[in-house]
Design brief:
It is built from 14 helices and 23 strands. It is α/β, with parallel strands linked by helices. The chain folds into three domains: 141 residues, Rossmann fold, CATH 3.40.50; 91 residues, no CATH class; 158 residues, no CATH class. An eight-stranded mixed beta sheet has the order 15-10-23-21-19-18-17-16. A seven-stranded mixed beta sheet has the order 4-3-2-5-6-1-7. A four-stranded mixed beta sheet has the order 11-14-22-20, with no helix packed on it. A hairpin with a 2-residue loop joins β3 and β4.
Length: 475
């Protein structure tokens, strides 16, 4: 049954544009094209994938095009003349034109019916499915199959959908589940209402974390495993698609893996530190240059960098230079800062620091109970604190570190509120705050910009921004 209301967000529109373009290509292909719409387990077929099929059905009908809808063993033809149930013995090759055919994999327990996949079929199949490649093997053999990855929900979309579950949009439990376990409706909405479902999920999560290893991470990051992960792995790893431009529909099929939340990222990083340094370096080198696994390789690099800085902070700080505001279309750009470690670097501006921390203190999410001690290296425990990775006060300055392997990085919100609200005692003046992006030797330059709608934008004018190379192999 179709819902009287359908929440439509940008993902629906982008996926529809992709299907229209891919299925409408006038190529002399030996086999017809097809599309598999997939996404993170728990994304919720009732909320996202299946609702996208309903959106696609409605949109295609508005455009005056016929559609076939599969529901269990029944087939329905939607056309301008009405809705018709198709006989079980129909011949798909008799259609005069190719026709969109929408299928929910959850309603085809035995897989895609064989009669849908003959080489001369006129069905343009769009299958919504969990990321299990076994569900669409037939399509890869009999059609030119493309995978379209639906991104998970944003925090705002989760809040907007809360009323469907009888929840308040400002329910703090939703935000807590989103931060701790991940951005899917099953986690943030269903588990809030059903503690028994959540208990079973949490058991899988604990088991996955305890069994985590370098080999497990290597397997998770493999392209062959992305669409064959077990349920436990998906409690730690999020499958998304690579970032793309507004009209770059070609990249909608390129997947990547990353920790499902920042909190889990820190837990994985701490688990990695139990492995040998040589093994982590080998894994980092194997993943760093692969786009779909750069987020995972970043976690490996952070585990190495954090370990080094806890013992000795010997860095050459390169100042970041502010670029002027510019315009892109009608949108005003935020200011950006750039530093260069390559041939264009001004060596005379480099500021070396050499600090040996007296100790390392892992502080809880709510902040510090005592004033910052000079020379102590502070790192957050595995909680939802994503604005930076560590800090130390030394020689009258506050050094705030952010590890990254990317060329372009956001300065996250919350730096000033953290130190203003969660750190007792006196701090150095803002002019003596040094925010440092710590990058590997493969990064020759780095750009950064403040997060959109950053209420602390003005503080960047008072704080010193730097980048510094930390070669974990050389240490």
């Amino acid at each position: 049954m179709l819902w009287p209301k359908l929440l439509v967000h940008r993902e629906y529109i982008q996926l529809y544009k992709f299907c229209n373009k891919y299925l409408g290509l006038n190529r002399n292909w030996p086999m017809p094209p097809s599309v598999v719409i997939t996404g993170q387990p728990g994304i919720g077929k009732r909320f996202t994938v299946c609702c996208w099929l309903i959106y696609a059905l409605c949109q295609h009908l508005v455009e005056g095009e016929p559609v076939v809808w599969f529901s269990g063993t029944c087939r329905y033809l939607f056309a301008n003349e009405g809705v018709f149930e198709m006989p079980p013995d129909y011949n798909s090759t008799k259609f005069k034109t190719r026709i969109w055919t929408l299928i929910d994999a959850d309603e085809c327990n035995c897989g895609i019916p064989d009669y849908l996949g003959p080489h001369r079929t006129q069905h343009l199949i769009i299958l919504s499915s969990s990321p299990k490649s076994s569900r669409w093997q037939l399509l890869t053999k009999t059609t030119e199959c493309s995978i379209a990855i639906m991104n998970p929900w944003t925090r705002e979309e989760i809040f907007q959908a809360a009323f469907i579950h009888g929840l308040e949009a400002n329910d703090p439990r939703i935000d807590e589940m989103y931060n701790q376990y991940g951005p899917t409706p099953r986690i943030c909405l269903s588990f809030v209402r059903n503690e028994f479902l959540f208990a079973a999920y949490e058991s899988r999560y604990v088991s996955a974390l305890s069994g985590f290893s370098l080999q497990k991470l290597r397997d998770m990051a493999s392209e062959k495993v992305i669409f064959n992960m077990d349920d436990e792995s998906h409690t730690l790893i999020l499958v998304t698609r690579l970032p793309m431009g507004r009209d770059d529909v070609k990249k909608i099929a390129y997947g990547r893996v990353e920790p499902i939340t920042h909190m889990i990222k820190l837990k994985l990083r701490n688990q990695l530190r139990k492995e040998t340094r040589a093994a982590r370096i080998a894994l980092y080198n194997s993943l760093a240059n692969v786009k779909g696994t750069r987020c995972i390789s970043g976690v490996v690099y952070e585990s190495l960098a954090q370990e080094i800085l806890e013992k000795k902070i010997a860095l050459k700080l390169v100042p970041m230079v502010k670029r002027e505001l510019g315009r892109s279309g009608r949108r005003l750009k935020f200011p950006r800062w750039l530093s260069d470690h390559g041939d264009g670097a001004n060596r005379s501006l480099v500021r070396p620091i050499d600090i040996t921390p007296a100790e390392t203190f892992v502080y809880p999410a709510f902040g510090l109970e005592h004033p910052i001690k000079d020379g102590v290296y502070y790192a957050p425990e595995a909680q939802n604190q994503a604005a930076f990775d560590s800090f130390i006060m030394a020689e009258g300055r506050l050094y705030i570190f952010q590890f990254t392997i990317g060329l372009d990085h956001l300065i996250r919100r919350g730096i000033v509120p953290f130190f203003s609200n969660n750190v007792p005692g006196a701090l150095p003046p803002r002019a003596d705050w040094h925010f440092v992006f710590v990058v590997p030797s493969s990064v020759s330059e780095i750009c950064c910009s403040p997060e959109l709608q950053d209420e602390d934008l003005n503080f960047l004018a008072d704080m010193n921004l730097f980048s510094a190379v930390l070669d974990c192999e050389a240490e």
